[in-house]
Specification:
Layout (H helix, E strand, L loop, with lengths): L4 E9 L4 E3 L9 E13 L2 E10 L5 E11 L5 H8 L3 H8 L2 H6 L3 E3 L4 E6 L11 E7 L5 E2 H9 L3 H9 L3 E2 L7 E2 L3 E5 L5 H9 L3 H10 L12 E4 L3
Parallel strand pairs: 1-8
Antiparallel strand pairs: 1-7, 2-3, 2-6, 3-4, 4-5, 7-13, 8-12, 9-11, 10-12
The structure holds zinc ion.
Zinc ion binds next to loops.
Length: 232
């Protein structure tokens, strides 16, 4: 079986997640990273906080990252990153699931990502399978069928039918959430199972029209690589 055909999809970061926790000064629960990290030294002991701003009233609040940790316990490069408010250190802290769990707040990932696809322009009637590597730039939990809808430009029902027919093969259930790299394969109509299934189905004409849509050149005005903005 020829498995040389490969495509790459990337879940790209477009914003940082919001921190959801109550504000002591107003009814809002949304906080954003202020871009600052505070380090206090007391002799050889350090306290490190991530500073957040309330999205409504701008009140600053502190999330403890390290409490009374010995200076030798932190990598020097990391300590410098904290001291200079290094944006990648801020990003890492605000996206950290363990920091969120430790401090009992939730992360809202809405609007934090978009899908970039680099699909070869191929006819889906090609019987050889196409393997698609999905790479995550950030650990955002995304429903797999949502990625497929965006990546292939299909409705949820169309995606579910292709999965049920074995044309799309996934390492998870389509309604599961992925948050790290995985691979899926899209099989052509020549695959044995799909051919068997198509004969058994009345709706094979409808199925063919779906398949023709996958891999069509982008509509006029759209450019490759395509970017689909996350709505949820
Ligand atoms: Zn507030």
């Amino acid at each position: 079986m020829n498995t040389d055909r490969k495509a790459l999809w990337a879940v790209r970061q477009s914003a940082l997640p919001a921190v959801v926790r109550s504000c002591p000064d107003c009814p809002s629960t949304r906080h954003r990273a202020s871009g600052k990290i505070r380090v206090n030294a007391n002799g050889k002991l350090l306290d490190v906080w991530l500073l957040l701003s309330c999205a409504a009233c701008d009140r600053t609040s502190k999330v403890p990252v390290h409490e009374r940790v010995h200076v030798s316990a932190l990598e020097p490069a990391r300590l410098v990153a904290y001291e200079i408010n290094d944006p990648s250190a801020v990003r890492e802290l605000v996206m950290s699931a363990s920091l969120a769990a430790k401090n009992r707040y939730r992360l809202d990932w809405t609007g934090t990502w978009e899908l970039e696809t680099r699909m070869p322009l191929y006819a889906l009637d090609d019987p050889s399978p196409l393997s698609v590597r999905v790479g995550f730039e950030l650990p955002v939990p995304v429903r797999v069928e949502r990625l497929l809808q965006l990546g292939l430009g299909l409705s949820r029902a169309e995606v579910r039918r292709l999965v049920a027919d074995g044309r799309i093969r996934l390492p998870f259930a389509p309604d599961a959430k992925a948050h790290r790299d995985f691979e899926l394969t899209i099989h052509g109509p020549g695959s044995v199972d799909a051919a068997k299934h198509a004969k058994a189905l009345d709706g094979s004409a409808a199925e063919r029209s779906d398949l023709a849509r996958i891999g069509l050149p982008p509509a006029p005005g759209r450019e490759l690589p395509r970017r689909a903005t996350a709505r949820g």
